[in-house]
Amino acid sequence: MAMALLANDNRKVCLRLARRMIRADRVRAALLSLSVLLVTLLYTLVFFTADSVHSSYLLSDQLEYGSTSHIVFTGLTEHQAERISGHDSVESSVELRSLGTLGDELLEYRNICLAAADKDYAETVSAVPEEGRMPERMGEIALDTMTLDSLGLPHETGKVIQLKWRDGEGTEHTDRFTLCGFWSGENVHSESCAWISEEEASRLREETGAKESVTLGVMLWQPKDLDDRAEEILADLGLGDVSFTTNLSYNSARMDTANARAVSYLLTGLFVVAGGFLLIYNIMTVSLHERLSLLAAMKALGMTPGQTGLFTSAYALLLCIPAVPAGLALGFGVFLWLARGIVEGYTGIRLELSLLHLWPALAAVLLSLFTAWAGCYFSTFRMKGWTPAMIQAFLNREYRGKKKRRRGRVTAWRLALASLGTGWRSFAAAILSLLMASLVLGSAYIRYISYDEDYYADEMYLSDYSFIDASCGGEYQRYNEQAGNITEEMAQKLRSCPEVTEYGEFLTHEVDLTADETLRRTVVDFYNGIDSYYGDVTRKESMSGQPGWVAGLDALEETGEYRSVLIGAEGLVMDYVLFYDILDGEFDPEKFATGDYVISVGATSQEGLSSAPAGSQVEIGDRTFTVMAAVADWGSIPAGRNSRAAEFSLNYVMPADTLQELYPGTHIRQIMVNIDDSKADRFEERTADIRRDEGVTVERKSDELGEFRQSVASAVSVGVFAGALLFGISILGFVNVIMTKVLTRRREFALYQSLGMEKRQIRRMVLYEGLIEGAVSLV
């Protein structure tokens, strides 16, 4: 009957045999299903993490670019915009119709288009009001908060504000608007929009004669090689002089970076493939004798090699039916719990489900099925074509042992050594699985300890708290000296907090000064000199990429006039001023506190001075100061930027009260404080009103260190989790090998007892075997 079934309906019989084999040994089937579940979990975690990191990196590039459009064409006429929109390569497009740009000099590092409100375009550049609404009536305007902060304007709808703007011809105009909405401007954005209604745009065109300029954002059917595609579109339409920019998230170098980050996670998947295969192969190998006995019986009834493979494949796939979906669900849950922090730590982008794709789930399912099938199939692959007699001979040889016994006294130790050859394949698989898990964990640990939090904190952060005028809180914001967001009352409150252990503040004021002949020659000779770092190029020539800087140096050489940023420094911040080497002179804190001395600031160089030398005199305002010392420029503080006119500047540091005496009304730009860590909660309570003030940006060292720790955890967490899980299941596989080896040798132990071996000697032999195999696994 069985022979007829095998001959006529092999698939159904093989499937039935696989089901019966699962029922016959439920423990082994459960262990295999659990292994498949864990492997699927790991695949899901690794693939979804790689996908989310890749997508988030590209999204961060897109945010830096400032638009979701593939290509943005600027300076178009309406006719040109229509032609580009109708090109065969263009899937969709959005238009920005601008009258000009906001013209206040405080916005000189940003390009803010004054344009008729367009919701579709606003969504592509993240410029949709979060408070209030888009303009609908005459005289209304919507702006981003960075612009409001730079201009010293409150975040308050209904407020009437006066703005300067320039049309396309460069003519400056001034108009009054009512703020109807605003949104948070990202610090990475150097461009934004100032939205007005269509009616207001028409009024301004009629009154000023301003011409509309169209900016066109397009989405392509095939967004590859965007620069080439843009050139092709313009060439096809005969529009060769049109300016355009392309989305950074499609830039080949940026995509290579995103791919490299994703691949770093996918490499963990290689260990999962190998570890999962070895785990399943191991479990199947330790039960080899039972399965071979079944195969011998079935081959005696006429089972062919093809049917043997079909039976093994059906067995593996049946185990996957409950395990793979459960592993996929659990893996996705672990990913959502673990990877959100990873993605944000790496890219600064909070993970959204909309960023994810379907391929990680499909890859996890397919690879899980393949791993389970491969582990089961290859455990008996070489025996598919064996006859029943060959299988029985193999089983007898396994029981007898392959090597001839040496003559001599039989001891428990010798028997333990002799038994190592039994089941060596499953033992080797278990050891290899442990090795790979250890490699994953070890590499994650080595990567983790390579991060030095203390070094990072010392280099990056001078104080525990930094209170910054919001007008210069962003990278592209020029400090507004008239904003005055940090008041004297705030400063006095921070000084008087008992939790504050160190206090410091920066004040700055830009002035135009005239250099004497000594200073002029010192600076000009320094920058006309050759720097060994640049070879045969002068220091001035090395700055040719910054024409504003070169123009400032030329003005100093020709007229002696230069821009200077006067820096009032008090307390803690002086440590940062003096952080780098003093290039000339010595610092005397008592003399400096008198207000009769200043410190000149120059370029970092040991080959000469680029600022006023120690002992020289400098006239500032109506006073003459003596230069106490010359120091190297420290660069990163105070926050924000100075004016473009100060691109080349010779700066001076003086006490904060001296600067306020010289120029009354000079406001505090930045306050830095250190606190008693044990009283941090109390300090937070005392300063809650300052931190809530929209005119003050607060940076906390603890927050930055928290982000650093999160970034460190992001770098190693998937490796640690995958390695720990692989190590755990490898240990279970190793224990399974040892226990199964003992439990399946009852016939052998019975033979030893019949020859006079006592139970305690058998126990000792098994103990020796365990110790030897444990030692091998440790090595």
TrEMBL record:
Keywords: Cell membrane, Membrane, Transmembrane, Transmembrane helix. InterPro entries: ABC3_permease_C, Macrolide_Exporter_MacB. The chain crosses the membrane at residues 262-288, 309-338, 358-378, 412-441, 718-739. It is found in: Cell membrane. Residues 269-383, 721-778 form the ABC3 transporter permease C-terminal domain. Its main location: membrane. It holds the Pfam family FtsX. It is a multi-pass membrane protein. Belongs to the ABC-4 integral membrane protein family. This is ABC transporter permease. It comes from Faecalicatena fissicatena.
